[in-house]
Please model this.
Amino acid sequence: MLEMSRERFEELVGEALDRIPPELTRLMDNVVIFVEDEPEPGPDGSRSGTPELLGLYEGTPLTERGDWYAGVLPDRITIYRNPTLRMCATNEEVVAEVGVTVVHEIAHHFGIDDERLHALGYG
Model:
């Protein structure tokens, strides 16, 4: 597995966020972004179902919010460090993969599904 400090990985996530156009970040609403080392274990306590999970969006996409949407906890985007480091062979690959993962998860916040993201090259 490629070695990279958590601090450096968090910097890469921040840099990827900085590359999101301001006209889009202004539209983001009630969402927080976290970096975690590993996805949560599955119901049986193992990570067998999610070891390759690079990011996760949890919440209500902007396209599905209505008048009922008030007083709810923020949506959560989590970027996973160790799975990313396991799949990448170089620091340059990590930079690229973090960028793709951040865009992918933010797109879910905007209501864009996996099928469309794969078609756009953000699989």
User: Anything to note?
Assistant: Helices lie at 6-18, 22-25, 81-87, 91-109, 114-119. The two ends are 22 Å apart (CA to CA). DSSP finds five helices and three strands in the chain. The first helix runs from residue 6 to 18.
